[in-house]
C-alpha cells in the first residue's frame, strides 16, 4: 500500500522525439481505457485487436479527444501467435517504449473442465501462453534498445486463487506471472535494469467480458486503466494496482483456503453455461 504515496513513474518512458505504446486488446474494455490514459499522458498509441471496424472506431474517437497524439491500429488475431512477427514489423520503426500485454482469453465461458471442447483449451492457451510469449520475444529487443522502457502484463486474481470452472484460463494467468517474474530478473542480470517488467493483478472490472455494474470494488475500465498506469511507479514486479482490489486480496489471503474456494464456487456455479437455467460469462 505504501507505494501508493509515490506518483506514477509513467513519464520516465516518454523520451526521445516521440514515444509510442502498444496495447494489445485495445479495442474494448481495460485495453481501450489504457489507450485513453496513455494518450492523456503524452504517448502515441498502437491499438491492437482483431476487429478492424471496431479498432478504427476507437482510433477515430481517440483522435478527437487527443488531437496532438498519433494513433495506429494493428489487426492480428491473438489466437494465432505466428502473427506476432507481423505486429513487431508494424512497430519496428517507432520509438516503442511501452508494451501492455492486456489481451487475454476473455471469450471464455464458465463450464466444467471435462465438458470443455479441446478447441476451447487451444484458444485459451494460444492467447494466454502462445501470443504473450511470442509477442514478448519479438518486442523485448526493441524495448531493450529504447530503454528506459516498460512492459506490463495484465493478470487476474484467478492466478492467486484459481476458482473452479475456469481452470485453463486461470492457468494461463499463472503462466503470465511466472513469465513476468523470470524476465524481470533476467533484465537485471543482463544489464538492462531500465527495462521495467510488471505483472498487474486485476480483480473484477466492469467490461464487455464482465457485464456487472461498476461500483467501488468493480471499477469501470477507464478507472482500472488509470490505476494500472498509476502503479507503474511502484517499482514492484507484482502489483495490485486498484486499491480496493488490494484490500480484497488481503482478505482473500487471510481467509482459510476452503472458505475462499467455496465463495468462488458459489458464484461460478450459478454462471455455468453447461448447467441448464444457469448464467453465462465470467466475472474474473
Ligand atoms: N474484466 C475483468 O473483470 C477482468 C478481471 C481480471 C482480469 N482481466 C483481464 O484484463 C484483460 C482485459 O479484459 P477486459 O475485461 O477488458 O476484456 P474485454 O472487455 O473483453 O476486451 C478484451 C479486448 O481484447 C481483445 N481480444 C480478445 N480476443 C482477442 C483475439 N483473439 N485477438 C485480438 N484481440 C482480442 C478484444 O477485442 P474485441 O473488441 O474484438 O472483442 C478487446 O479489445 C484480460 O487479460 C483479462 O483476462 C479482466
Structure summary:
The protein is of the alpha/beta class and 284 residues long. The chain has one domain (2-269): NAD(P)-binding Rossmann-like Domain (Rossmann fold, 3-Layer(aba) Sandwich).
The number of E-state strands comes to 7
Approximately how much beta-strand content do the residues carry? 5-15%
Rounded Rg = 18 Å
Whole-number tally of structural domains: 1
CATH class call: Alpha Beta
Helix content: 40-55%
Provide structural commentary.
- It is a single chain.
- The protein is an alpha/beta fold and about 280 residues long.
- The chain has one domain: Rossmann fold (3-Layer(aba) Sandwich), CATH 3.40.50.720.
- About 45% of the residues lie in helices and about 15% in strands.
- A 7-stranded parallel β-sheet has the order 3-2-1-4-5-6-7, with helices on both faces.
- Helix 4 (about 120-145) links the parallel strand 4 and strand 5 (about 150-155).
- Helix 1 (about 30-40) packs across helix 7 and helix 4 packs parallel to helix 6 (about 165-190).
- The two termini are about 20 Å apart.
- NADP nicotinamide-adenine-dinucleotide phosphate binds near residues 30, 77, 103 and 207.
